[in-house]
Amino acid sequence: MVKKQKPEIQSTDWEKAKRWEGSVTLDNDLLLSDQIHLAPMPSEPRKMNFILIGLCTKGTIRYTMDTKELIVHAGEMLVASERHIIDEYQPSPDMEGLCIMMSVDFFHEIIKSVHDVTSLFVFARMQPVMKLNKDEITTFKEYFQVIKQKINDNHNHFRKDLIRTLMLAMFYDVGNVIYRVKDFDESLLRSEKVFTKFLKMVEENCKRERRVSWYAQQQCITPKYLSQAVKRISDRTAVEWIEDYVTMELRVMLKNTSKTIKEITEEMNFPNQSFLGKYFKEHVGMTPSAYRKL
């Protein structure tokens, strides 16, 4: 019997999202929807190619991000960056919420030269769901409404500049939620900068490079300094972050692609299939083949 091959994982479709009922858009850069419960969700996993900020206002949303289950309750905010794999989206029958989606280029265009704002998306990878207080919920709703109004104001000569400014202001307020949750102080800024660069490099290079010394060299710092900065900011070691990203990549490829174990071994730069099998079992608790059959 020939085993049915799983299709390659697909990216999210911005053009389909633009057709959601109740949504407003700014070119291919920004989308706002206050009727997210009416949006058709794919039945297969999707790799995000945009950045999303959402607020659940009623009910719950259950889904998986990078194979890990998350639940968003009313009054909670979800922040998700590009490259995440979203699957098994299950809203409750009474779910309602607000959603802001933006292209990666538009996001970076807004926050260029504003380093502190990027911390929102760095720490959202560890804690993508955050509880907002009453004032924070009101503030987010106000931003949503005024940005939506400006998107619809086609006769305003400064429309796009106004929207960029409003989005940046919103990022500062939403970023303040992170500082409330994480309880930062000014002495952490240097370590945060090192950690932010490290995490971005791991995302881009973990398939080929798993040495802490290599990542330290890219920032012209010692492996000891990198390890201390990462530990200070995240309460986890640099090795643990690298292993998590490698394991996540393996899990996604095993579950959501038709690639053979041999092909995955080569793509992930493991010396052989046996080594990959031992690595995966050590971190997941089962063999790649057993995981794929789940």
Q: Report strand order across the widest sheet.
A: 2-3-10-5-8-11
As a percent range, the share of helical residues equals 40-55%
Number of helices: 12
Q: List the uncertain runs.
A: none
Broad structural category: alpha+beta
**Radius of gyration, taken over Cα atoms and rounded to an integer in Å:** 20 Å
- Given the C-alpha coordinates, what overall shape results? globular
Strand content: 15-25%
The termini sit apart by 19 Å
Secondary structure: number of strands: 11
Look at the structure and give the mean pLDDT. Answer: 85
> What's the SSE pattern?
EHEEEEEEEEEHHEHHHHHHHHH
Largest sheet: 6 strands, antiparallel
Tell me the layout of helices and strands.
Blueprint: E1 10-11, H1 14-17, E2 23-26, E3 30-33, E4 46-47, E5 50-58, E6 60-65, E7 68-73, E8 76-80, E9 85-91, E10 96-103, H2 104-111, H3 115-123, E11 129-131, H4 134-152, H5 159-182, H6 189-205, H7 212-218, H8 223-234, H9 238-256, H10 261-267, H11 273-284, H12 288-293
Parallel strand pairs: 1-4
Antiparallel strand pairs: 2-3, 3-10, 4-9, 5-8, 5-10, 6-7, 6-9, 8-11
Helix pairs in contact: 3-5, 3-6, 4-5, 6-8, 7-8
Summarize the structure.
This protein has helices at residues 14-17, 104-111, 115-123, 134-152, 159-182, 189-205, 212-218, 223-234, 238-256, 261-267, 273-284, 288-293; strands spanning 10-11, 23-26, 30-33, 46-47, 50-58, 60-65, 68-73, 76-80, 85-91, 96-103, 129-131.
